[in-house]
Design brief:
The chain is α+β, with helices and mostly antiparallel strands and 408 residues long. It is built from 10 helices and 22 strands. The protein starts with 11 loop residues before the first strand and ends with a helix.
């Protein structure tokens, strides 16, 4: 295709960088909003959903945790319902078992009450339970009080990504290493293989590398992605009866992490975790994986040092639980007293792309930015998988407005 007045030949209308669930949902939304639009998705891995999408606990979050009125709150509530419907229509494995959020100490009771109020403000149905009612749902779990969250579900997010990928042109092993943006003309990208593709607009859904892609395009993201690894265990099969469903602790409001939780998955296994420790690579799924460019990027960023100074005590506890199965087990026993270290088997870890602002604060909401010919998704950690469909619609709308401005 050639755009009148420029003489430039385009490979597509919109280039989407990133073949995770957010990038694929954006491509899906673009095609739904404007049938016939040409969308190309560029994924650096040989397969889709290799990182945040395919390495999480598979939970469809209800939206109770997030600040009322925030994008996370609105998109999670909408997204949970939309995702369940999507899974049903496309035959993707899913369930809606609900979950328990359990207070195990007296000081957690006011926070649990506040969480119930927040849930209701967000439109999330919850029931407040006492110890006897907790035991009806989870006989092996101990707590002083709990919330029963009715709309929490589960699905296979990798399978969702495969369905979303059936429409657009998806190119694997296509890592973007250079971006040439020319106002009034469009965007050209070069991949690590030397291929050059041109589009009228670019959408950056690169997840763990979103800030870098923004800089390649000439935009200052105003933040840095700092990777946090979440490590999981699974219960030995003969001990899986200890957990029937989904059980969460009361989260610490100072952090975006939900704490170590128990998840009886669709695969029949019970996963326990994650913790949250600094990763030594943006795709560092164990302590042995070190990429000095990533380590240097974190250590050279003042926001990371300010974050560490603010939260070092919390971080030290997380690192201790990473190195010590006994310490990890002690954290689990707050909810599940009957578990022993030998009951825990290592499971696959994930890495969260957490945006850190220059003042050291953690970006607590989804964050998007638009520029000439570009739209950037700069912060989309959990619950982004749950909220992928409304996020895709939001980003697609921004991209279409960019195109409309060029066409005017």
């Amino acid at each position: 295709m050639t755009r009148a007045g420029t003489g430039v030949s385009y490979d597509c209308d919109v280039l989407v960088v990133g073949g995770g669930i957010v990038g694929l949902a954006t491509a899906y939304a673009l095609r739904a909003a404007r049938p016939g639009i040409a969308v190309t998705v560029l994924e650096k891995e040989p397969g889709l959903a290799r990182h945040q999408t395919g390495r999480n606990s598979g939970v469809i979050h209800s939206g109770l945790y997030y600040r009322p009125g925030s994008l996370k709150a609105r998109f999670a509530v909408r997204g949970a319902a939309a995702l369940v419907d999507f899974c049903a229509r496309h035959g993707v494995p899913h369930a809606v078992p609900g979950k328990l959020v359990v207070a195990t100490r007296p000081d957690e009771l006011p926070r649990l009450h506040d969480l119930a109020q927040r849930a209701r403000r967000n439109g999330v149905p919850v029931r407040e339970l006492g110890p006897a009612q907790i035991a009806e749902y989870e006989p092996e779990v101990r707590g002083l009080a709990a919330l029963r969250v009715l709309t929490t579900g589960q699905c296979d997010f990798t399978a969702v990504a495969r369905v979303l990928a059936t429409g657009p042109d998806v190119r694997r092993s296509a890592e973007v290493v250079a971006v040439d943006r020319r106002p009034g003309v469009g965007v050209a990208v070069r991949t690590a293989r030397g291929e050059v593709l041109r589009g009228r607009a670019l959408v950056n859904c690169a997840g763990l590398h979103a800030d870098r892609v923004a800089r390649l395009a000439g935009d200052d993201p105003g933040l840095r992605v700092v990777p946090f690894r979440g490590e999981f265990y699974r219960l030995r099969p003969e001990r899986a009866h200890l957990v029937r469903g989904l059980v969460y602790p009361v989260p610490d409001p100072a952090f975006p992490f939900l704490g170590v939780h128990l998840t009886a998955g669709l695969d029949g296994e019970v996963h326990i975790g994650p913790n949250a420790v600094p990763a030594l690579a943006r795709e560092g799924y164990d302590w042995r994986t070190v990429r000095w460019r990533d380590v240097g990027g974190t250590l050279g960023y003042g926001g990371a040092w300010r974050m560490a100074a603010r939260h070092w005590r919390y971080g030290a506890g997380e690192v201790r639980r990473s190195w010590s199965r006994a310490a990890f087990t002690r954290a689990v026993r707050r909810l599940l007293p009957g578990v022993a270290p030998e009951d825990l088997l290592p499971a696959r870890a994930g890495v969260r792309a957490q945006a850190v602002l220059p003042d050291g604060s953690l970006a607590d909401d989804f964050r998007f930015a638009s520029g000439p010919h570009t739209v950037h998704v700069l912060n989309a950690p959990s619950p982004a998988a749950t909220a992928c469909l409304p996020i895709g619609e939001e980003v697609a709308g921004r991209a279409l407005r960019v195109l409309a401005g060029e066409e005017a």
